Amino acid sequence: MLKTRVVAFVCCVAMLAHAAAARPAASHPWDNAALSPDARADLVLKAMTQDEKLRLVFGYFGSMKPDSGYTPPPEARMGSAGYVPGIPRLGIPPQWITDAGMGVATQRESADAYRERTALPSGIAIAATWNPDLARRGGAMIGSEAHASGFNVLLAGGVDLQRDPRNGRNFEYAGEDPLLAGTMVGAAVAGIQSEHVISTVKHWALNDQETGRHVYSAEIADDQARMSDFLAFELAIEKGRPGSVMCSYNRVKSVYACENDYLLNQVLKGDWAYPGYVMSDWGAVYSTQRAALAGLDQQSAGVFDTQPWFGAPLKAAVKSGRVPQARLDDMVHRILRSEFAVGLVDHPIADATIDFAADAKVAQAAEEEAIVLLKNDRGVLPLAHTAERILIVGGHADRGVISGGGSSTVFPVGGDVVPGLGPKGFPGPVVYLPSAPMGAIMARVPQTPVRYMDGSDPAAAASEAARSDVVIVFATQWASEDTDVPLTLADGQDDLIRTIAAANPNTIVVLETGGPVFMPWLPQVAGVLEAWNPGSRGGEAIARVLFGEVDASGRLPATFPASLDELPRPKLDGVDLPTGTAFTVNYDEGAAVGYKWFDKNGLKPLFPFGYGLSYTRFGYSDLQASVVDGRLTVRFTVTNTGERAGKDVAQIYVGPRDGGWEAPRRLAGWSKVDLQPGASTSVSMTVDPRLLSTYDSAGRRWVVTDGPFVVSLGSSSAEIKTSVEVSEPVQPYR
Ligand code: BGC
Questions:
Q1: How far apart are the CA of 425 and the centre of ligand 1, in A?
Q2: Which of 80, 99, 278, 409 to mutate to test the pocket of ligand 1 (most atoms within 8 A of CB)?
Q3: Inter-residue contact 724 to 623 (CB < 8 Å)
Q4: How many domains would you assign to the chain?
Q5: Whether pTM exceeds 0.90
Q6: One domain for residues 423 and 542
Q7: Angle, helix 325-342 to helix 312-320, in steps of 10 degrees
Q8: What is the model's pLDDT at position 26?
């Protein structure tokens, strides 16, 4: 049944695609690709009727909504997030819209209706690679699968900062540092758009927890926001040039994000001169006039809102002059401009096959660099091929690897291998991708007995552990949109690990989590790997790292706290309130997010930002910092001083010697290097002047800090190996 449904869907896409690809015979002046996207958009705009303009600013949900009796327009792709009709007479294609950052998702309308596509590791995993090239390749892979699946808009690009490790969507984002998150997400967006699929960045802004996401108001001083969450968006937008930005559900300074003049008109379109369009999140619009005047350009999936605000009400508002015609024209111009800039018009959806084998390799390569080796005592890893008996426990490791939940859920090629788990409706189900770590481990030690136990009987697992050389426990956490997650592993997994570790000191824990978790058993186990949501070839990647076929080269993109007391908000705001009750989240920590908060307050986390072990050793030398042509330029040498080939992430942190920032230091750059044993490489980088500045809200500008600066080279935010001072003046940003 499942296969039939999927095959039927593939063939429908192809048929629709042909219809969509049929371009009008007459050529239009805007077909001239030598013109700028703005010029082309203006030409189309002049040829449009008022109703055609209005058609582009109102979106339909692309799936059935049984609770409201809603059915999508027949032209929408099955199980998709959205659809916006095109203008066939002008050669403007519809927008076929799908989630999300890990791959081409399906909004499941029924248990057997979904498309099977390749899943990348989660966003936080991609960030953990600290390798923008992998992020770009991953983006290009999912962009090409989207295009081949009949989609030209992908709701990827999650870049909200990890202000709280309990945020249920941390897995979709890129960690806690604005430079790292902005760089990695910008690269992913650029990759997606290289396939002529518009990407968003989302959710603008400060959607930093899921609890009460439709009602809370985020309060933060403007300068602090500019140096943290906003900077992550600013960098992702600069580097990725997304066609669209998605405004979020929550309020900021009491005003809903999708009708927030400060966020949309002033910061995004004003200060940053963003030329693309703002689309709303699904069910995030509360008005016509307010939203239109504040800078919203497209209402997504209007059925999720109480009114089709950008449908008939917008038409009436423009007619009466409450919304100027120029504003509607600007909305349409922005949408068309992005369609030309990204290539939607010049590269229409066309029939294409997907090379799933090649795409799986992209997912595997990303996961291999995403896995973070957190602990490795007595050289328990890499695993020896000589082990006489291996026990694998838990995490459905005999069948697959877990993925995150909610709108971004990708249904993998081969289907969900542990069906029936989690919520039946949204944000479920819990999906396991068919890449079993156990099979991949067994393939590497064909002579060794490898046994799997599900862990439901800890005593039995412990007695088997006592008879094994090595025990690998797989611990999972399902994180999802719409709800936040505790940092304690569910279902007694901590007790299971403790019991097993007590029976066998050679216990290795592989975590498949959405983000940070507590590890009360840490002193008892010999090894720990953080594998995140490992994607379509996660099992293979985990085995490759376990056996040392590739180095462990992931580094944490977020601090793992030792306790809730260390966090700016030990208790999540809103958890005790009845659903729908408005509340405020005060981000009093300002720009001191993650490691900056820990450094400022002298707190010792479980694992610091930037941390991760390798199977080899690296030495740093010759650190020099000087100002060249007004830019802070840093040079240093990295040497592989160990016996194995490996990859390191050498990190540069900068802070003013005499203080004055939100925290002692900020990540200012990094380099991921790949070195043979004994080999050295010299690294040179320049530092973005915004990272050497504070934001002056009154003057709406970055003000570069007077030196001297302390420039530090380290292997994490907490392991600084060497520092130098530089006193020459740096040129301000722009
Ligand atoms: C999520 C968005 C997503 C949209 C469409 C919303 O619930 O917040 O990230 O893109 O749904 O599925």
A1: 15
A2: 99
A3: yes
A4: 3
A5: yes
A6: yes
A7: 130
A8: 62
